[in-house]
Amino acid sequence: MTQPAAERAIERLLDHDRKILDLRHEIRKARLKRFLLVSTYSSAPALLLLLFIGNIAAWGRVDLARVNLACIPLLVALLVLCVIVRESSTERVGIRTVLSDTWASGYAATKKIDLELAIERRRLSAVSTNLPTETRRHIYRETVPGAIEQYRSDGLRYRRVHNLFQSVIIIGSLATSTAASLAETPPPYKWITVGTSFSVGLAAGFTGYFKFRERSFYLQQTADAIEEEYDAVNLKVGRYKGSTDDAAALLEFTERVETLKNDQRKRQQQLDQPTETPEG
Q: Does 136 lie in the same domain as 270?
């Protein structure tokens, strides 16, 4: 039996989507491998440089022998890790040992170009696909749960960052006031006061500038509103109660969801604007 043209068109679009997802996964994996390679190779020299500068700065004032001895096992572990990463990131070509393609610096850039081409092919294929409008709306409705999950995951990430900075502000403020209230503050506590004060100021600055709490609130609000519309159109409740025309209900649902998404984009743009300071 011949497959309908609409189903074949949908299968072609799904093939493009699968290719795009595979390329994005390869790009993420390549960037992670490159980060692991660079961080591993630079960790041992960075530790040696830090110890060298610390010993020079503390020469004749502070004995860093115990610190140096404690860093020897760490340095050995970093060198062993370098060897392991090198063995896993290289391959033999004849008698030579070369870096694998997935670990090379230009691999992610090449895959990014392939990804842009795949997205363009998908767009051209979607334009040439003559699907009925109602079918497109049904497809759109089935993508709504993914959008809801994306909004919620982004909101959860912003909420976690906000809670982290707020914890730094609360703990740092208490530590700063405690260390500063000591009658005769010895030098170590002075440095603690300086460090905690800097951490509190940094956390407060990031929280006020990037507005993590507001971003999390608006994303969660949009996700809840879209989910409410999705459940209402499926269960025929709320504004869709008593609706006998499924096509009209689906059209109204699509318009409502797009309105909610546009409102979220506008709020996101407002949050991205820098805070204006009043002129004195």
A: yes
pLDDT at 184 (0 to 100): 61
- C-beta separation of 142 from 210 below 8 A: no
Give the rounded distance of the alpha carbon of 250 from its chain centre: 33
Q: What are the beta bridge partners of residue 91?
A: 98
Contact 203, 171 (CB under 8 A): no
On whether the pTM is more than 0.85, the answer is no
- The predicted pLDDT at position 1 comes to 41
Boundary-marking domain end, from 131, 166, 184: 131
Give the count of domains, the chain: 2
Task: Report DSSP letters for 183-230, one per residue.
Answer: SS--HHHHHHHHHHHHHHHHHHHHHHHH-HHHHHHHHHHHHHHHHHHH
pLDDT at 78: 86
**Residue written as token pair 């996101």:** 268
Ranges of residues in the chain whose predicted pLDDT is under 50:
1-2, 277-280
* Tokens found for residue 171: 């703990």
pLDDT at 228: 94
Nearest to 219 by CA among 275, 170, 267: 267
Cβ–Cβ under 8 Å, residues 236 and 243: yes
Q: Kindly tell me the sign of the dihedral angle through the C-alpha atoms of 242, 247, 251, 254.
A: positive
* Residue 122, domain extent: 1-131
Is residue 27 domain-resident?
yes
Q: Which amino acid is at 88?
A: S
Computed on alpha carbons and rounded to an integer, the radius of gyration of the chain in Å comes to 28
